[in-house]
# Entry
Amino acid sequence: LAWNVAAPARCSKPVIAAGRGYCFGVGFELSLACDFRLATETTLYALPEQKLGQIPGSGGSARLQKMVGITRTKDIVMRSRRIPGRQAFEWGVATECVPDAELEQATDALVEELRAFSPIAQRTAKKLLNDTEDSPLSIAIELEGHCYSRLRSSEDFREGVEAFHSKRKPAFVGR
# Structure
């Protein structure tokens, strides 16, 4: 199950989790593996496995700890505490918190925003950030430099610079 729940992190494209209402257990773990989490004011996140005599088993507590630290993660996991969408946003778990009626519109807007960027730059950024999350700063900076150099020779970089100078929107091709 943990392998399947980690699929959004392995996907080369940006993955968005849009949640309204209850997002408990493996559903919360799955959303934590996504790149962006959109919550509403009625969203409630929880890892309630303690109530079943269990712990999260698909990476949820580990991912959550990286986002909010050990103290808050212990509070959420060990007490099966529910976290409202607004608080999840304030803590950095949710990317945005929007009114219930605006969730689909906010999700569509994020999709369109991401689609406007170079696919190769998006893939590179996601892989770099995921791969260097646990790396020492010096290694992360070195890998970032390698990725930057590779992208400088891409068609999309040339198109982006040309579009910038021409004051037009770029037409990225993903190469």
Q: What stands out?
A: Residues 118-166 form a domain with the Lyase 2-enoyl-coa Hydratase; Chain  A, domain 2 fold (CATH 1.10.12). The mean pLDDT is 96. The two ends are 34 Å apart (CA to CA). The first helix runs from residue 2 to 5.
